[in-house]
Amino acid sequence: MELWGVQIIGVVVAILLSPLFVGIAQTVKARMQGRRGPSLWLGYHVLKKLWAKETTVPEYSSWIFQLAPTVSLSALIVIALFIPWGGQVPAGWPHDVLTVFFLLALERFWVGLAGLDAAGTFGGLGASRITTLGSGIEPAMFAVFGLLWYLTRGSLITPIMPHWWSHPLNMLPWGLAVLGYALVAIAELGRLPVDNPDTHLELTMMHEATILEYNGRLLAESQAAIAVKFTSITALGWVWLGPSLTSPWLNLVLRVAELALSSVLLGVIESLVVKLRYFRLPTYLGIAIGMGMLAVYLVAFQGGK
Q1: Which is higher by pLDDT, 110 or 167?
Q2: Which of the chain's ends, N or C, has fewer CB atoms near its CB within 10 Å?
Q3: Is 267 helix (H, G, I), strand (E, B) or coil?
Q4: Cα 154 from chain centroid?
């Protein structure tokens, strides 16, 4: 029963704190650039303000436009449910990485579909770019998780977890897998250098272009989905990176601290890099794929196991 309690509380805490983690990244980024930056609680104020506003939809949009934010947010909440916040999941609790990949693809599909359904020029442009980028993100995810699948002969998240600390591998394969996942996570989250979430320059927008027509509660759901996505993707990386403690409650506290640390690191990275040109992104994702494949090769054929 303890694991059930920790898991449920962990999911609730992760969802409620997700705007704070995004705010930490924005504040660190601003301080690195010599600016005061927004309040850490700005995300909560924005969600509250948007939720209270009247919601309007484009004249030529359909039910897809109105349903997309709910589907996106729901898929990302389900992903948060898959994360073993206490170090383990309760018996019978789903925690398959392949299902996580499917839900991420589903969320990306609906975001792109909503951009097209709005019948706007920039929405279609953003949808095209997101789906094109997704075709590179998915094989990159399979590649960087290849090392863990090779070691565990499965796709469940929990058996993967102890390997970083207990499996006798040299550091090179692990380092390649970690760097590859970091590149994929940044691309999936739409952060610099892949995309700039702060820009409103139409010619460079990706995800922002697909939600350009949203307002009110629908925009609040879209913004909440972005925050929960950051929490889920980052927590998934820390779960198999470790460490894993004996107490489920200590593991939960550790996960929250790791998410806060990730927000700080993201703010530092985004203040040091610039956005890549769109046609350079296949090379960026190709590097992530290459890192994952090389990690598997080193373990499988060079006596790493």
Answers
A1: 110
A2: N
A3: helix
A4: 22
Closest C-alpha among 43, 6, 10 to residue 263: 43
Domain boundaries, the chain: 2-301
Q: Which residue would you say has higher pLDDT here, 177 or 286?
A: 286
DSSP class per residue in 167-198: S---HHHHHHHHHHHHHHHHHHHT-TTT--TT
Q: Which residue is it, tokens 């972005």?
A: 226
Distance from the Cα of residue 238 to its chain's centroid: 12
Give the span between the Cα atoms of 81 and 254, in whole angstroms.
Answer: 17
Show the beta-strand stretches assigned E in 80-199.
Answer: none
* Cis upstream peptide for 162 (omega within 30°): no
Q: Which amino acid is at 280?
A: R
Q: What pLDDT was estimated at residue 305?
A: 44
Give the range among 16-20, 278-282, 297-301 with minimum mean pLDDT.
297-301
The amino acid sitting at 237 is: G
Whole-angstrom distance, CA of residue 245 vs CA of residue 259: 16
Rounded to 5 degrees, φ, ψ at 215 are -155, 170
Is residue 178 a contact partner of residue 145, using CB atoms and an 8 Å limit? Answer: no
Q: Phi, psi (5° rounding) for residue 237?
A: -65, -45
Residue 114 near residue 209, CB atoms below 8 Å: no
Tens-place pLDDT, residues 61-106 = 899 999 999 999 999 999 999 998 988 877 777 788 899 999 999 9
